[in-house]
Amino acid sequence: MSPRRRTAGPRVGIIGAGRAGLGLALALKKARVVVLGVHGRREKPVPAGVTLTVGPVAPWIGDVDVIVLAVGDEALGPLVAGLAGAGVLQPGQAVLHLSGAQTSEVLAPLAALGVVAGSMHPLMTVSAEPERAAKHFRGATFALEGEFEAVRVADRLVRALGGVAVMIAPEAKPLYHAGAVFASNYLVTALAEAERLLERAGLPRETAREALVPLARATLENVAAMGPEAALTGPVARGDAATVKRHRAALEPEDRRLYDALARATLALAKTKGLSPAAEAALLAALAEGRTL
């Protein structure tokens, strides 16, 4: 096959019709990027303006400049192997995957065929509702990694979305992705735990959720405005060991273990904003009482 002729703007095709693929397709189309289609395994409802194709091979695959692989990490390797074996890619096409944990090395079988390979991870939670997902992609930060030309193409797409592109070293991706997990997935877990404790305290579930979300939103706004040290409040930040003891006494052993782990991490943060050695010692003593192993 001969190398592809460059065009004025990238034409994009997306493989993977899940929440990330459909949300990104919609976001790119709203940004006036040409998206020829989203390819999936089966027919399903898609947003207006998005073309879904199904079957062994995407019919548009030879007509796009950029192929985005929007599949889960466990499906990425088999998908790459299938594309490499199908012989449908052309030298000069760019292939980008959206994984936060894997590097462009997973695309090596395709790079050997002359495509340029890279990764473009959105540092953003992806809603199951494509319209909401598309809104979140707009202005998001994307971590880029891979071959120079692939990164250049990814940067164009990020800029079209009004987003921020940052470079990430391949060896740093697991650490980077763990940070994203703390900020998103574990935040959800913490809020679910808070909701359950408020329920145990007697609040109806919906009331608890309606009360907690504004609290979490205000906390995030404070972190954005002041940074985590200045935004930190609560008994650990105040050195209030007596309140910590009361909390621990009220918690079940499993909840107490989680509370203790987070309290110790919070204690380290509180020290950076001036927590006294005496207060630190009192808090450590409180966390050691009746410790469940």
Question: What does it look like?
Answer:
The chain has 293 residues and is α/β, with parallel strands linked by helices. It has two domains: 11-172, 3-Layer(aba) Sandwich (Rossmann fold), CATH 3.40.50.720; 183-288, N-(1-d-carboxylethyl)-l-norvaline Dehydrogenase, domain 2, CATH 1.10.1040. The protein is built from 13 helices and eight strands. It has an eight-stranded mixed beta sheet with strand order 3-2-1-4-5-6-7-8. Helix 5 (148-160) links the parallel strand 7 and strand 8 (164-167). Helix 7 (185-200) crosses helix 8 and helix 11 (241-250) runs parallel beside helix 13 (277-288). The longest helix has 22 residues, at 205-226. The radius of gyration is 24 Å and the shape is elongated. The model is unreliable at 1-8 (pLDDT under 50).
